[in-house]
Amino acid sequence: MKGVMMKSKFSMQALLFGLIVIFSAATLAQAAQEGLDQDAIARAIGKKGTASGDTYKVSFPRSDLQVKVGKVTIKPEFALTSWAAFNKMGDSALAYGDLVLLESELNPVISKLEEKGIGISAVHNHLIYETPRIIYVHFMGYGNEVTLAVGLKAALTLTGTPQKSEAASPEVKSETARQIEKVLGYEGNMVSGVLHVNVPRNDIHVKLMGKEIPGSMGMNTPLNFQVDGQNAAINGDFLLLADEVNRVIKALRDNGIEIASLHNHMLDEEPRVFFMHFWAYGDAATLTKGLKAALEKTNIK
Question: Are 226 and 155 part of one and the same domain?
Answer without folding.
Answer: no
